[in-house]
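Re-run requested by the PI after the first attempt was lost when the workstation crashed. Everything re-entered from the original request form. Ligand of interest: pyridoxal-5'-phosphate.
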Amino acid sequence: MNSWRNYTEISRIAYFSMEIGLTTEIPTYSGGLGVLAGDTIKSAADLKLPLVAVTLISRKGYFRQTFNEQGWQQESPVDWRPEDLLELLPGKALVTVENRDVKVQAWMYRVKSPTGGELPVLFLDTDIPGNLPEDRKITDHLYGGDKSYRLKQEIVLGIGGARLLQILGFQVRKYHLNEGHASLLTLELLNHHRLPVEDTWDERASWDTRSVQEKCVFTTHTPVEAGHDRFTYDLVNRVMGEVIPTDLLKELGGKDELNMTMLALNLSHYVNGVAKKHGQVSQALFPGFEIHAITNGIHPFTWGSPFMMALFDKYLPGWAYEPELLVRVDNIPDREIQDAHAGAKAYLFQYIEEITGAKFDPEILTIGFARRATAYKRANMIFNDPERLKKIGAGKLQLVFAGKAHPHDDYGKKMIQEIRNQTDFFGDDLKIVYLPNYNMDVASRLIPGVDIWLNNPLRPLEASGTSGMKAALNGVPNFSVLDGWWIEGHIEGLTGWSIGPPPTETTTDVNHSDEDVKDLYNKLEKTIIPLYYKDRKGWTQVMKNAIGKNAYYFNTHVMMRRYVTEAYLR
Ligand SMILES: *Cc1c(COP(=O)(O)O)cnc(C)c1O
């Protein structure tokens, strides 16, 4: 394919996401949501699905994380040059921000699969001569700035994105809104789908919400009311102006505030949560809407370590495009699974030594924990009773952590600092490192190299979680609270281990922290540590089960086939 125009020849699914994580070199993601979007796009390319993705260029990235002497997170912009990696497309859209015209342009990245599949990702950009200096910064910082900045970004993403697709000649068969950030695109579609009756603002019959719904699929990712984007109508009127009549907007997006989730719910014909449990939780949050569930996945070829992938290639050729083949993992000799994992472990330990100077022991059971450092994920929970942890783990455990806290999240930063400060108490008895600047590169080295993957969120706040799926693919069993995808992937003692009580049918989960902590220590002491050190064969079987019973299913190939049959073709 030479010209972007070739992409416009067939009609496509337009996949809108505030963040997309394709590679570390394009730092336009902050965590799981963006990485999921990237993995989704890569599987779509593998499967040759007609898709075009739209996101923001985030010229300053999310941020680069370092630590000061006190272990407090420091943030700096990520330097990258879009012009080195992306191609600027002709054509500009105009959006209205604070009563001014703001120009929006798009940079294109081509995602190419070895299957021959190929599709474009458009990165929207307002850093254009002629725009006011402040408007040129709208697409600089992912999740930066205040409410007004966020609303401007969502105008660019939703309205700017929809307009630019049209200007470039893309034909769109469905719009997929990955989280509510892109909901404003529905307003643009409403304006396109006005029925040819009285062309007056207050002619309600002329607003064809039905046609817009038929075009839109909405995936919600947030399991709590407070997590959904909202804007006061004062702000909306000042920043966005009247895109559709205010009365109608209030009807669709909420009476008192513009709630982006409500707007998307009201204007989509198919809505889903990102795991079965999350579907139920969302259903309870939004009664009156039918909410389905399609469990998230990971892109197998992106997240397999080179060591494990070589083994899969040898015994299960074709696995990367048909991950279901992993179900036959038991054909691989134990010894070779162990060796592949040892390779990934050595590769991680080399990195740990390079970055922190700490020398980790390849014989010792190593626990990994890495994800965004935010309160509900409880990164510091394993340190709840340091004396007990020392007793259980001295000489038998090593811990590797990583993860960024949002720049405004002091609690998250404290949690990191607390972990970093544990090293003095544990000394050489139990080595602990906190690796800086968690990103896709660090993740792909860290996750496959540990022996178990720890996850202890406060239920039901982990809508899905995907890092555990990356672990499973690499034969790293999960040790996790029963929330998100793990409720579906967990078979106790076979695919990994649970922490805390079983999930409840009710959606209002209470805080089980005390039970969780106790169970965490007990299982480590009585089940996991003995199995690891005394039953190598038993341990290796759990590793294989993680691959054959978790990874074969929890991947974006399976997920995309479900989106096609259950959402896009409806
Ligand atoms: C996979 C991934 C995540 C998501 O991790 P969760 O445990 O699902 O929260 C976050 N950040 C990066 C860099 C990742 O690769």
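Saved to the shared folder this time. The domain at 300-547 is CATH 3.40.50.2000 (Rossmann fold).
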